[in-house]
TrEMBL record:
This is Rhodanese-like domain-containing protein. The keyword Transmembrane helix applies. CDD domains: RHOD. The lineage of its organism: Bacteria, Bacillati, Bacillota, Bacilli, Bacillales. InterPro entries: GlpE_sulfurtransferase (IPR050229), Rhodanese-like_dom (IPR001763), Rhodanese-like_dom_sf (IPR036873).
Amino acid sequence: MDWLTYLIYGLLLWFVVSRFLPLRWLEQLGPQDVEERLKDKKQHVYLDVREPGEYKGGHIPGFTNIPLSQLKRRVGEVEKGKTVILTCQSGMRSRQAAKILRKHGCTRIAHLKTGMSGWRGRVVR
């Protein structure tokens, strides 16, 4: 193999690994942390970035649905002065949403690291 092949493999590996590394600026919350923060609704904005069908199938009370696919054009609906708490199904889409929100001026962002798959609290259908 020549150096170009190693470079391509290295870049591919970096790309894959970087998708799973924690973002230093994104606060990682467990289900109990989210339960605690739901008690103080005035300090936080709660967003579920799953698609509408997933959201209607069951969501955490107090979370508003803005699907990841619509977030860039609806980012103006998010209050930037509050901490934004995100959730999705597994934690991957909420990480993507956090990157979008950060680019648009949100500085305090957290997400339910397990997503809805790890949520054992109350769910509204």
